[in-house]
Amino acid sequence: MKKQIILGIILAVLTIGITTAFSGSGTGTSTNPYIITTCTQLQEMNNNVSAYYIIGNNIDCTATSTWNSGAGFVPISLSPSNDIHLDGKGYNITNLYQNRTTGWSGLIGTGARIIVSNVRLVNVNIQSSGQYVGGLIGQVVGGSGTSAVISNCSVTGTVTGTSTSTGGLIGRLGVGYYDVYLYNSYSRATVIGYTNAGGLVGSAERGQIYNSYSTGAVSGLSGVGGLVGVQTSGTATSSYWDTQTSGRVTSALGTGRTTAQMQTQSTYSGWDFTNLWIMSGYPVYELIPCVENWVLQYYPATCRDVLHIIYYTDTNNCGTTYLLPANNNTMERCTPDNSSNVPGWDLLITGQQQWQHSQH
Q1: What's the pLDDT score for residue 156?
Q2: What letter would DSSP give residue 75?
Q3: Is the Cα dihedral 320, 325, 326, 328 positive or negative?
Q4: Listed residue (182, 172, 309, 157) closest to 235, CA to CA
Q5: What is the SS3 assignment for 138?
Q6: Least crowded by CB within 10 Å, which of 72, 234, 300, 312?
Q7: Cα(9)–Cα(22) distance, rounded to whole angstroms?
Q8: Short-list 122, 86, 54, 42, CA closest to 285
Q9: What are residue 11's phi and psi, to 5 degrees?
Q10: What is the distance, to the nearest Å, from the Cα of residue 25 to the centroid of all Cα atoms in its chain?
Q11: pLDDT at position 275
Q12: Looking at residue 27, what DSSP letter applies?
């Protein structure tokens, strides 16, 4: 019996601290990030929070409503000292569900140097009775050196918090001495808060917000604002909220506009409507440019030159694009061929092509 007890203790000790391997591809480095293709893999970020991750396709998280006895998806990172790197590549993450009784709720719970971009959360249902609740991030702390930067992210759905600091995108933006930055993002989520509730951010303590907006209805007991609930030393530049759809005519930060104004491009002073935004009612994201370098060879044939891609790099980690046709990665053209007597493959051309990956 004693041997069994001792063996059990040894196994328990050995188990502590073991990190479960990520089930997808990649190595988790900045040059070869883990590629997330399922909601289960998204949850696996908690196994190695400090690694680098990208989203590889649209992800359906409907099943999270049954996870963890109804508590749903566990937020990525529940330590304010963690560093997090996630690039959503403009793909949609749909129907993410949480129903928590503790703080730091959202896709990401909390962290220090959080670098998150191009994440699209569609139809979230985030509920918590703890503090710091956001559709994307519960709390952004920041840190020395490279601080937190959140850019080109969006949320739709419903975010509910019955404690303090609830925001459609972020609950608490900035803590302590470190500035944190939010760029080119929006929330159309309904926000149901208690104290410090905002359509985009619940409380902006040291958060600096640029070129962002919110449209969702916002409710709460105190410290409620259309864009930002409360602010300590936060700022907002060229950032707006819809005074009609939000039901709020005041905000701690930002500029209120009517629905008609919010759906007029000239409202958005300084925004990039050439490379990032287009108007579709409200502003939505345009396209991410993907730069690919390629080398073509051709094989002389009787009636055609067959162009074949022999070298290919994707310098912006854009994932699958539309450069390669379906017919065995070749492009064919039927043209007169005056060099059919030349055997084998000949180097034809090198170049660079830009393609677009939609991220609406």
Answers
A1: 98
A2: P
A3: negative
A4: 182
A5: strand
A6: 312
A7: 27
A8: 122
A9: -65, -40
A10: 19
A11: 85
A12: -
CA angle in degrees (0–180, nearest 5) for 49-51-57: 95
Return the closest-CA partner of residue 240 out of 226, 230, 224.
Answer: 226
- SS3 at position 13: helix
Per-residue confidence (pLDDT) for residue 324, from 0 to 100 = 34
Question: What pTM was computed for the model?
Answer: 0.77
Mean pLDDT per 10-residue segment, the chain (360 residues): 39 37 93 96 97 95 98 97 94 96 97 94 98 98 82 97 98 87 97 98 94 98 98 95 98 98 97 92 75 40 37 39 35 33 33 36
pLDDT at 20 (0 to 100) = 56
Residue 4, CA distances (Å) to 7, 335, 358 in order: 5, 78, 58
The backbone torsions φ and ψ at residue 338, rounded to the nearest 5 degrees and listed phi first, read -95, 5
Report the pLDDT value the prediction gives residue 329, as an integer from 0 to 100: 38
- pLDDT confidence of residue 146: 62
Token look-up 């929006």 returns: 186
Residue 327: per-residue pLDDT = 37
Q: What is the length of the chain? A: 360
| pLDDT recorded at residue 179 | 81
CA–CA separation, 181 vs 173, rounded Å?
8
3-state secondary structure 172-209: EECCCCCCEEEECCEECCEEECCEEEECCEEEECCEEE
- The CATH class of the 2-285 domain is mainly beta
Tokens of 216: 């969702």
Domain residue spans in the chain? Answer: 2-285, 288-358
Which pLDDT score, from 0 to 100, does residue 181 have?
94
| DSSP one-letter code for 22 | P
Relative to beta strand 186-187, strand 154-161 is: parallel
Residue with tokens 């162009």: 307
Buried b (16+ CB within 10 A) or exposed e, 121-153: bbbbbbbbbbbbbbbbbbbbbbbeeebbbbbbb
